[in-house]
Specification:
Layout lengths: L2 H4 L6 H12 L2 H13 L3 H29 L3 H11 L8 H32 L8 H12 L2 H21 L1 H30 L2 H9 L8 H15 L5 H6 L8 H29 L10 H12 L3 H34 L4 H21 L15 H28 L2 H8 L3 H28 L1
Helix pairs in contact: 2-9, 2-13, 2-15, 3-11, 3-13, 4-5, 4-10, 4-11, 4-13, 4-17, 4-19, 5-6, 6-8, 6-15, 6-16, 6-17, 7-14, 8-9, 8-15, 8-16, 9-13, 9-15, 10-13, 11-17, 11-19, 14-15, 15-16, 17-19
The structure holds tryptophan.
The site of tryptophan (TRP) has 18 residues, from α2, α3, α6, α11 and α15.
Length: 450
């Protein structure tokens, strides 16, 4: 196969950094992290989350970039070639298979939430939030969830946008968007933070998020925090592997990974601080769940000067951030289809898009007509997909990648790819062979017995 006919490549290292940051930064930072903090007891969750990013997230991010770049193939074929190169069982390729499935399953609910964001763009643009109260804002969000047709409309638009960018090819489609997007998102978040600081209860927010209370660390909260570290950094399923496969050989994997992890967690934590300052000042419920940002942020935008303008801009930027993440969720599967079945990107994107869209319809119905449908352990459709992917499939994928890179792959190969000083290489090796596997396995075990 002639690689050049199928594969894109990043123009330079900087665009890779931006694209990978674009994959990492998305609804996970603005929507999911803030509400997960509230649902899982505040600071205890934040602490485990930060530890997970440092001890597991960054080393595994490096691992995934490295595995992808070495073979320059989609995750499944890359794992197969890597296994061959290391004289290991070809079954390692199922890491890639599981990853493709994980990405597809995540996008089924990600797109529905992306739809909520799109609908909030239109609401903000119509000035629907002017002078809104906490109770009104919550009622607003409940009304959205109760309307299957509105949800369906916006979910469809989100899928169409995502899959049209995918159809064009990731490297071409993303390079331009990301250059502007991430700085703009940071800027508007700082504005929001400034506003929250002036009218909200920033002290209560900071205490809630950062005062250490170890007694609140339950096994379940720890698993959620670890799972969210994977979700937030986009690791454990091959998104990063496939982006790494478009990367030239001269980039420093370690520096890139650290940069991405810092940008990603900083953005999420800043969003959390801004949101909880508003939650506590308006007597809202910190454990409100997935609707949290949609109930709190309209209050801020509804009262600040130029609020309709900033609100519209904010939700537009979040929608873009969500789209650049969504793209990376399907890119492994698209790359696999294009490189193996040899159909072109457009029909591949259309077919996969329709599949994901259909499952997404079931997800959006689980907020209204199918509210009482339970899949496993009393969880509805949305919760099942979310929990299954974030707390089981991603950590499991990451665990297998860590073991492969740390124990199976020849040291000379990982050394060559990572190109680190000996002491840093040993640290990376230690995290992949011991720290990350032990952390992941022990939260799994805790959960089994709780
Ligand atoms: N990290 C993205 C977010 O925070 C979501 C995402 C994109 C993702 N690609 C992924 C999550 C791969 C897990 C695995 O919104």
């Amino acid at each position: 196969m002639n690689n050049m006919t199928y594969r894109g490549a990043w123009a330079n290292r900087w665009t890779f950094i931006l694209a990978t940051t674009g994959s990492a930064i998305g609804l996970g930072n603005i929507w999911k992290l803030p509400y997960m903090i509230g649902v899982n007891g505040g600071s205890a969750f934040v602490l485990v989350y930060i530890l997970s990013i440092l001890l597991v997230g960054i080393p595994l991010l490096m691992t995934e970039v490295m595995l992808g770049r070495r073979m320059q193939k989609n995750p499944m074929d890359a794992m197969l070639s890597l296994a061959k190169e290391s004289n290991a069982a070809p079954a390692w390729r199922y890491i890639g298979t599981m990853g493709m499935l994980t990405g597809v399953l995540i996008l089924c609910f990600y797109s529905v939430v992306g739809g909520w964001v799109l609908s909030y763009i239109s609401q903000a643009a119509q000035s629907n939030f002017t002078n809104i109260t906490g109770a009104e804002s919550s009622a607003h969000f409940d009304a959205l969830l109760a309307s299957p047709f509105t949800l369906l409309f916006w979910h469809t638009i989100f899928m169409v946008i995502t899959m049209s960018i995918v159809a064009k090819g990731v490297t071409a489609g993303l390079e331009k968007a990301n250059n502007f997007l991430i700085p703009a998102l940071f800027a508007i978040l700082l504005l929001l933070l400034g506003y929250s600081m002036s009218v909200g209860d920033m002290a209560a927010s900071a205490t809630f998020m950062f005062s250490p209370d170890f007694s609140k660390i339950t096994p379940n909260a720890a698993l959620n925090a670890l799972g969210h570290a994977f979700f937030s950094l986009s690791i454990g399923m091959g998104s990063i592997m496939v982006y790494g496969s478009y990367l030239q050989r001269d980039a420093s994997i370690a520096r890139t990974s650290i940069y991405i992890a810092i940008a990603d967690s900083l953005l999420g934590l800043l969003a959390g601080l801004a949101i909880y300052a508003l939650v506590f000042a308006n007597q809202l419920e910190p454990g409100a769940g997935p609707g949290l940002i949609f109930q709190t942020l309209p209050i801020a935008f509804g009262h600040m000067p130029w609020g309709n303008f900033f609100g519209t801009l904010f939700f537009i930027l979040v929608a873009f951030a969500a789209a650049t993440s969504a793209i990376s969720l399907v890119e492994p599967t698209i790359a696999w289809v294009v490189e193996n079945i040899k159909i072109s990107r457009k029909p591949a994107a259309a077919g996969l898009g329709i599949l994901i869209w259909s499952i997404g319809v079931a997800v959006l119905l689980s907020f209204n007509l199918w509210q009482d449908v339970k899949v496993v352990f009393g969880l509805g459709i949305f919760d099942t997909l979310d929990k299954l992917t974030s707390t089981i499939m991603l950590p499991l994928g990451g665990l297998l990648m860590a073991i492969f890179a740390g124990c199976v792959m020849k040291k000379q190969h990982s050394k060559q790819e990572l190109n680190l000083k000996t002491s840093f290489y040993q640290l990376w090796q230690l995290t992949n062979t011991f720290i990350a596997p032990i952390a992941i396995v022990s939260v799994f075990i805790f959960l089994l017995f709780s």
